[in-house]
Amino acid sequence: MALVYKLQAFSSFSVSAQNYNKVTSLITNPICSLHYKNSPFTEKHSTERYQRDRWLYQDQVELSQYQSSPCSLPSDSESVRENDIALQLPELKKLLEVLKRKRESCCGNDGDGEKCGPGNVFLVGTGPGDPELLTLKAVKLVQKADVLLYDRLVSNDVLEMVGPDARLLYVGKTAGYHSRTQEEIHELLLSFAEAGATVVRLKGGDPLVFGRGGEEIDFLQQQGIQVKVIPGITSASGIAAELGIPLTHRGVANSVRFLTGHSRKGGTDPLFVAENAADPDSTLVVYMGLSTLPALALKLMQHGLPANTPAAAVERGTTPQQRMVFAELKDLADKVAQEELVSPTLIIIGKVVALSPLWPLSSKEASCLMEAV
C-alpha cells in the first residue's frame, strides 16, 4: 500500500526531545487566540481538533487534560508539522492493517486467490459553514464513512455528524502552516482506499470550486481508484443568499465571476485578472482575498471599475459568528482593516450588492422605508 512506503520514509525522522516537547505541548496546550475562541471552523491547533484526532496520539501523550492559557505557534512551524506527523505514524499503520483485515474478512476470501477490490473515495462539499446547508447525500456519507480527511473550513457542527466508529484526520491548510502537503493528502487517500475503506474527503464549500478537488480526482483515477464528488454549496452562493444579494440580476449583472485572491507559491500574480474583471455589468466574487484586497481594489479601479461600486466582505458567512462590512469599492479595504476581519472572508463586488436589504440606505431611502412599514 502506498502509504506504508511513505510511512517507512517518515519513520526515519529523528524526533528529538526538544521538538517532541514542542508538539506535545501543542496537543496538551492548544493554540489559543481571540480568533480561535469562537471559531465555527477547525483551527490548526485548537482543542477541538486534537479531541477529534486523539486516536492518532494515544500511545504518545495523554490528551485528557486541556489548558486554556493563551499560547502561540513556535517560529519553526515546519519542524512542528513534521514531528506531529511522526507522532501519528504508529496509529496510521495500525489503522491500515485493521482496514485491510476487515476488507479480507468481508470479502469471504476462501483461498482461491481472488483479491478484494479497493474502496471508494468521496469528495464531499460541506458548504460555507451552516450544517443545515449540507445535502442529504453528504450527511449519509459522513455518517457511514470509515475514514474522513477534513479541511480547516469544515465547521465543527458538521463534524459532529460523523459516525462513532469513524476515524477523523485533520489535513487542513492555512497561511504559514500546512498540516499536510497536497502530495501527502494524495497518498493518504490512496492508501486508505487501497486498504478497502470508504474514504470521505471533507471540504468546505464545494470540492470543485477552489477546493483542489480536481487534483485529487486526477491523482486517484490514475491509480485506478473510483472517485465520486458530492457537491456542496459554494461560499459565493451560500453567503450571497444569506445577505440577500442576487449574484446575477436582469439589467444589473449579466454574469458572475469567481476569483482567487492568491496564487500558489511561484504562480502567476492573481491580480493580473483585474483588467478583464473590471466589468461594471458583472459580479465579482473573490475567495481568499483578504490580504490582497487593497491591491485588488486599486487595480480594479485603475482598469475602469467605478470607485463607488457597491461591495461587501463577509467573515465566517452563514455561521453564528458571521461578520460583514458593506462599503463602496474605494473604501472597502479600509473598513475591512478597521473591523479587523479575519480568514475566511469572502468578498463580493458589483452593483448587485446594493440590492441586499442590508446595504446601508441613505436617510431619504430609510425614511421612505419606515413610512412604508
Automatic annotation (TrEMBL):
Listed CDD domains: SUMT
Pfam family, one: TP_methylase
Enzyme Commission code(s) on record: 2.1.1.107
Record key words, sorted: Methyltransferase, Porphyrin biosynthesis, S-adenosyl-L-methionine, Transferase
GO molecular function terms listed in the Swiss-Prot or TrEMBL record: uroporphyrin-III C-methyltransferase activity
Residue stretches making up the Tetrapyrrole methylase domain: 121-333
GO BP, sorted A to Z: methylation; siroheme biosynthetic process
Database matches in InterPro entries: 4pyrrol_Mease, 4pyrrol_Methylase_sf, 4pyrrole_Mease_sub1, 4pyrrole_Mease_sub2, CobA/CysG_C, Siro_Cobalamin_biosynth, Uropor_MeTrfase_CS
Family: Belongs to the precorrin methyltransferase family.
Protein's name in the database: uroporphyrinogen-III C-methyltransferase
Organism: Salix purpurea (Purple osier willow)
